[in-house]
Amino acid sequence: MRSGSRLLKVLLQASEKAANIARTCRQKEALFQLLVQEKSLEEKNPRFFQDFKTLADVLIQETIRHDIEIEFPELAKLVQGEETNVFSNTLGESIIVEVCPCSKDTTQLLTKVMGNDAVAAELLAAEVHKDVQLSDVPIMLEIPTDFDINVDDLGIWIDPIGKARLKKKYKSWTVLCLIMHTCGAIRGTFVDSTADYISATEVVDEQTGLHLSGLRCVTVLIGAYKKSTGVPVLGVVNQPFYTNVNSQWTGKCYWGFLGGGISKSSINNACNADKIILLSRFEDADVKSKLLNNGFRLVEATGAGYKILSVALGEAAAYILSKGSTYKWDTCGPQALLLSVGGGIIEFKEFIINPNSENLSVNYLPIGTNFSNRAGLIAYRDPQILESFKCILCKSSH
Questions:
Q1: Residue 161 assigned ligand-binding role
Q2: pTM over the 0.85 mark
Q3: 148: annotated binding-site residue?
Q4: Residues classed as catalytic
Q5: What is 276-397's CATH topology?
Q6: Distance set, CA 274 to CA 218, 311, 314 (Å)
Q7: How many CB atoms lie within 10 A of CB 397?
Q8: Residue 159 annotated as lining a ligand binding site
Q9: pLDDT tens string 131-183
Q10: Rg of the chain, C-alpha, whole Å
């Protein structure tokens, strides 16, 4: 198996291990109870819920880094994501969260981080050290063995749990919000009952079948890019919460790569939703108005990773975001997936100013400490959609 295929295999397995950790945080009673314990502001650590969510993200990120390092030691230091692995526990101690040589040692470390909760720590450590095989990853197409890549020219962006927001249509801050907040599913959202979470209630658009919010919108995102150019070449998008049977979740995973004149993806057949545009619910009214006036159906869904995946699957024609509210880790993996099926992600603001430029693609070379996609984005599968946007959105069209 050549280096590109080997790396794809490692990333797929790492994404599934991350998905396992996400599901464990929700489904194991000991962890579930930690998440639903509502603490008052007078207690020692009122930030417990945010701390636990951060710990879950850090643990997943470090697990992915660890698993990559086993096969590709030179890549471990080039894995970048949202979280730092220095964690403060309830006693104010700073602890470096990392994967230890064995499950017992990792349990001891996590026990210290989690205020001596050995049961919860052992559950998490067991998932971290689980031997995940490629056959365990829910992919629809076997990976090729002949994909080659120059590993020395790679950097990696990861989002441990792609964040999604549910709509603020509910009135009370309840246990469900705390649970999902901790799992990384949502930030700062209001929901109305624990039963919604337990029964895996999803909000689905009846006309398009797209998920507007809920656990289906949560993703694990891993992308490799060329350090020489900043262009994504390999992407994995894993949905930990794809199907719920008898209160047990199973996932679905997609991959794509391109390089050396070869492109291949696990996405074969795609829908043709040429008039559906995905947006954030905070999108500018002017952008919405222009699209609506030109016959597009607008769908406000959550999670950048989920929205880009939906475009790659052909379930929407494009995802438009005029604001700089996504980050490199949100889009690197999904952009590689899109590129592998003939699409891409370009900078919204640059496109508006100069739609015929050949340098519009979002780039992944880190610049300073600002990792946001500051110019917004347009994610598309069929390049022809951009011709429509030139007439509708671009300044030169007025």
A1: yes
A2: yes
A3: no
A4: 57, 82, 159, 161, 192, 194, 330
A5: D-Maltodextrin-Binding Protein; domain 2 (3.40.190)
A6: 24, 10, 8
A7: 12
A8: yes
A9: 999 999 999 889 999 899 999 999 999 998 765 433 333 333 233 333 333 34
A10: 21
